[in-house]
Amino acid sequence: MKYLLFISFIVYPCLSWSEESCDFGKKLSGSYVIEKAEGYLPNQVDLVSKNSKNSIYKFELDAYWSSRPYDDGSFTSQAYYGGNFKVKRCIAKYYSSEDDCNLTFVFDKNTVTISHYGMCGYIGHNVTLDGVYVKK
Questions:
Q1: What are the φ/ψ torsions at residue 129 (nearest 5 degrees)?
Q2: CA 121 to chain centre
Q3: Using CA atoms, how far apart are residues 123 and 64, in angstroms rounded to an integer?
Q4: pTM for this entry
Q5: Other Cβ atoms within 10 Å of 98 Cβ, number
Q6: What are phi and psi of 4, to 5 degrees?
Q7: pLDDT in tens, 31-69
Q8: Which of 86, 48, 41 is nearest to 62 (CA)?
Q9: Considering Cα of 17, then 22, then 132, then 105, what sign does the dihedral take?
């Protein structure tokens, strides 16, 4: 019993901290980008609060890859995902059944880290969604 009580004192404050470290409500709304070299389109995710009380957000994620700077679109590959998710303990998950793609969003103070797994058939050649997006 002593050990269980000791663990609860350690675990509970950590869980509470993780919930409080997320800026719920309208503070998460906005644009987050991964800047690239000059002339290349940045990856961007836009978040809009649909219901801040329940931490539900609408997102639009655009990611690009181009073989050369200032491309007119002829040699650019793109990925686009959009939908709704609920943020819980600074983490949100989205699943696209159309192309069997799982997206995970992990929020920190002014960033969101995005990762994906699955088939993700809507991701174009050489495009990656993964990375740390910084709030504008």
A1: -90, -25
A2: 18
A3: 9
A4: 0.81
A5: 10
A6: -65, -45
A7: 999 999 999 999 999 999 998 677 899 999 999 999 999
A8: 41
A9: positive
